[in-house]
Amino acid sequence: MRKSKLLLIxxxxxxxxxxxxxxIIVIGISxxxxxxxxxxxxxxxxxxxxxxxxxxxxxxxxxxxxxxxLTTLICLIVSYPLAYYxxxxxxxxxxxxxxxVTVPFWINFLxxxxxxxxxxxxxxxxxxxxINLGWIxxxxxxxxxxxxxxxxxxxxxxxxMVLPIYVALExxxxxxxxxxxDLGASRWKAFRHITLPQSKSGIMTGSVxxxxxxxxxxxxxxxxxxxxxxIISNIIQQQFLGARNWPFGAALSVIFVITSLVLIVLFxxxxxxxxxxxxxxxx
Length: 283
Fold this sequence. Notes:
Layout: H1 2-30, E1 33-34, E2 40-41, H2 47-52, H3 55-87, H4 91-102, H5 109-120, H6 125-133, H7 146-170, H8 175-182, H9 187-198, H10 200-215, H11 218-225, H12 232-241, H13 246-282
Antiparallel strand pairs: 1-2
Helix pairs in contact: 1-13, 3-7, 3-10, 5-11, 7-10, 7-11, 8-9, 10-13, 11-12, 12-13
């Protein structure tokens, strides 16, 4: 027991040095002021949090949550059937399926995102193809839209959803499905009462990974959305690097971390409540 506690020391040191201490510093900065040159003034103030309630920032904040939740849901809907197919396929197909899912990680993130610019721009591949088919007369405005941002987010973060769900499904005890079949349960009923609850951990892990990644991903919105589709991470970046308003950037960071934690807890409780209802139904 004593040795196991000693093994936790490097982990706790790492978390404290690169997570807890920086977060405490950010919280402290959020309650400070700044002068006209952007320098920090060590005077307690709630001005940064008051600025957040400006309708402009509240609107961007709401759009960020909608984009993050929508991306997570689309990734889940697309990824679950794919992960289910890979987990139940032959070993050879499983190997190739995992390779294809992880191939995007072999390419630089910026290159993958800029590839969508070549596809979606006015003279890009998609518009050229549609014009040559005679389906449209004028190029469509596909780039620098909210749809382009959503597409880029889903494309980049699908692997973060597929892999956790695949692991959960692959580790599931397949004998439970055989027992359900022997007892006369249909495939849909077996999926609903056995497979889906057993994959809850993968769904939860994948959802958290995708949601948290999307909320902090300002690169995709910069490249595919331009100035028309900013999210809160873009505003935070601008406050720290452009406007030199560190207290406001820190306040936005604190507020968004709290909101993300609340949404993750609510999602986890909803998953647990559903799992409990399924167990009571089986009982």
